[in-house]
């Protein structure tokens, strides 16, 4: 088993956190956590079952009354302590992210800063959960609107941003006065456990944050407990649309509140009046972050015919210069994919595109040998001649592949861009102000970038429309998703 050395070894946890106690699974089962860059295991964590899941809910339910009774300022101060500890351990946490997820070390450190920004934001927002006083229609009444925490929240997080996603869910829950049971992705559980350890160190009481880990096979057993338990009042999930639909169906019996951040198929549109250098830079930032393994990365690139060839030339030059390698190499800009299944999907998409007439301008192959010690690497790839019937245009590739299509006019590209069940993010580049507003309003997407490739921020609402889900994370709107509205009417005052 490969080793991971941290400056603070206490951050490398290999146990569940339930009611302030670090423990093995009830069955004693465990599973390996592997480094995608090498394929070697470097840790083991509990393979939890229904007993562990129920114990986590028991703890969160028991802790809820006291936690919600704390003043908003008190909760905010504890979140600020957690934020400070996250930043104080940024290097260790960044190494942990990079080792279990595979992203380059600079990106790992950057993700920790990004995760911390959500904790700080919601610490500040905790004291701003204002209600309303409604002008009474008749004398002698007072009509008030109060905001209250929904209750126990179950957070189910993905592997691609193991720090940012858990922080983006837990921080607003705690700020609102909720308690949490969390299940991180089986590929990347260690970062969540480390953040939970720091939350505990910050003074967040036992039972307020509970984390259980489970393998892919055992995950349904854990989550089904939370879906059936009427004490769990909210599910927040980031992941695939099919699983999101399953959660929506199975939570209906107890009418839980849901936040679902699901699949995307983001268009990236370059109009012929765009600043091409800026468009290429924006695409590079949006597409190759985390090796293309992000839900908002451009999945379909549409370039207007008049600038198509020049854009492809500029982009190919930039993509060819990318360094692919493990996080341990400081020069790495694109790391390994998360696992072999991910690489198989990428290869299938490229092969399907070529069979249907696309041209591989660059890349298009798995990388093996040398620095690529595992089979999880795929070459940054540029495809042209992509059409709507190809798999890479219909499904999220989730990898370092840029599929480019040519278009003639605005109406055509809007039809193409909106011709998908998904609507998470969309990007376009233009210098025409009227077009900018016209296209932004026409795009069926929860997030739109105009001449900008980096969209996410803790102060902005993050979420989609159509089959990309509902609910918002980040911003003051994200806090509302963890609260319920109560109307209070007092009479007899006249």
From TrEMBL:
Protein family (similarity comment): Belongs to the aldehyde dehydrogenase family.
Top-level division of the source organism's lineage: Bacteria
Keyword match Ligase: no
Species for this entry: Ideonella azotifigens
Gene3D superfamilies hit by this protein: Aldehyde Dehydrogenase, Chain A, domain 1, Aldehyde Dehydrogenase, Chain A, domain 2
Taxonomic lineage: Bacteria, Pseudomonadati, Pseudomonadota, Betaproteobacteria, Burkholderiales
Active site as annotated: 261
Pfam families the UniProt entry points to: Aldedh (PF00171)
Cited PANTHER family: SUCCINATE-SEMIALDEHYDE DEHYDROGENASE, MITOCHONDRIAL
Protein name as annotated: NAD-dependent succinate-semialdehyde dehydrogenase
